[in-house]
Design a protein that fits this description.
single chain; 376 residues; alpha/beta; Aminopeptidase; Alpha-Beta Plaits; 2 domains; six-stranded mixed β-sheet; four-stranded antiparallel β-sheet; 16 strands; elongated
Length: 376
């Protein structure tokens, strides 16, 4: 079966569904908009006889778990979990300034690459399996997250539970430029550092303790942490009340990224050991959010070898790669599941005004996903 030729014949239908989903704008913070976009996906897929489980949410869009059980086969063994997300970083109204359009082999639009094209690939892979009478070896779980871009405790919990039960996890985030998979991802720690000093009149600063100066010293210390590959961004900062008052309080929120759990332990240890450099000053740190690193584990390596063999039968070469950003695949990997990430189409402009995917890659990745779902 030439899956690439098959999906090439369905290219128009795939692009039409992608256009529909892109025009149904779905920023994470807009529950109503996200739910409307999710409903369009469910409508497209529920005719396949799948089991649809809606997991209602109050603050974010509802989460969905779609289960496909092959007919005529009990699909023994652990299921394959396919991870997708319906939310985007783009506010409603962006489509007016960044319309969906195609030029050459490039498809543009807010959220087209990240990651509504991945959702379309999953939908059409299941449609192909159903219409062609293909019999996967495993049940297929398709999870649609509504808050991947911001992170959410409930969605993370659901992914962790599902990943522990899965025999393989396939995440349809975009591939790297050149088509490489994302087999390693940096972890992320968002930390608030708060300093407290003593207020005084600006004409006699020696009578006070400047919390902003203390904060600056602490941030300089943090910047000097020597961990290979670690990145630090001081993203937000504030403090003080008036120019003529020695500030009593100051704070900063930092984004730290790192490759391994060992790096994480070093960072946490450093934060615990932070001490004020000035008498009467105080320093307090708090972790605001955490995404674990996705390390290239033995289980994921074995899955990659199997996937690489399957892809080679389609004359597709799978290349390992790494990314500084996190994804839901990081959650699955953290609980020990074998994971492949970056199985979505190749493109450029993630979270940028030039966001686009490559049409040939869209077709190729959908074909590859179908073969993986059938043969893994």
């Amino acid at each position: 079966m030439d899956y690439q030729l098959y999906f090439k014949s369905l290219q128009g239908e795939m692009v039409r569904l992608l256009k529909t989903l892109v025009q149904l704008e779905s920023p994470t913070s807009d529950k109503k908009a996200v739910d409307k976009c999710s409903a369009a996906v469910i409508k497209e897929i529920e005719t396949l006889g799948v089991k649809v489980k809606r997991i209602p949410q109050k603050e974010i869009g509802d989460l969905y778990l779609i289960e496909y059980i092959p007919s005529g086969n009990k699909a023994a063994g652990e299921p394959i979990l396919v991870l997708t997300h319906i939310d985007t970083v783009w506010p409603v109204g962006t489509i007016e300034k960044m319309p969906f359009y195609i030029t050459g082999d490039k498809i543009f639009g807010p959220g087209a690459l990240d990651m509504k094209a991945g959702i379309v690939s999953a939908v059409f892979a299941l449609k192909a399996i159903n219409s062609l009478g293909l019999v996967p070896k495993r049940r297929i779980w398709l999870f649609i997250n509504s808050a991947e871009e911001t992170g959410n405790d409930e969605s993370h919990k659901q992914i962790a539970v599902l990943a522990k039960k899965a025999g393989a996890v396939l995440c349809l985030e975009p591939g790297l430029p050149g088509g490489a998979l994302k087999l390693e991802r940096k972890g992320r720690l968002v930390v608030r550092i708060e300093t407290t000093g003593k207020s005084a009149h600006a004409s006699t600063p020696e009578k006070g303790v400047n919390a902003i100066e203390e904060l600056m010293l602490q941030l300089q210390r943090l910047k000097k942490v020597k961990i290979k590959g670690m990145s630090l961004n001081i993203g937000l900062i504030g403090g003080g009340e008036k120019a003529n008052v020695v500030p009593e309080k100051a704070w900063a929120i930092c984004d730290l990224r790192f490759w391994t759990s060992q790096d994480l332990n070093k960072i946490k240890s450093f934060l615990r050991e932070l001490r004020p450099s000035r008498k009467e000053a105080k320093v307090k740190t708090a972790i605001m959010s955490f995404t674990p690193p996705m390390e290239f584990t033995r289980a994921s390596r074995e899955l990659f070898v199997r996937a690489k063999t399957i892809a080679s039968e389609m004359n597709i070469e799978l290349i390992p790669g790494r990314s500084g950003g996190g994804s839901d695949a990081s959650i699955a990997s953290h609980v020990g599941a074998p994971v492949l990430d970056g199985l979505g189409p190749e493109g450029e402009g993630l979270h940028a005004v030039n966001e686009h995917l490559l049409l040939p890659s869209f077709i190729q990745r959908t074909a590859l996903l179908t073969k993986l779902l059938v043969e893994l």
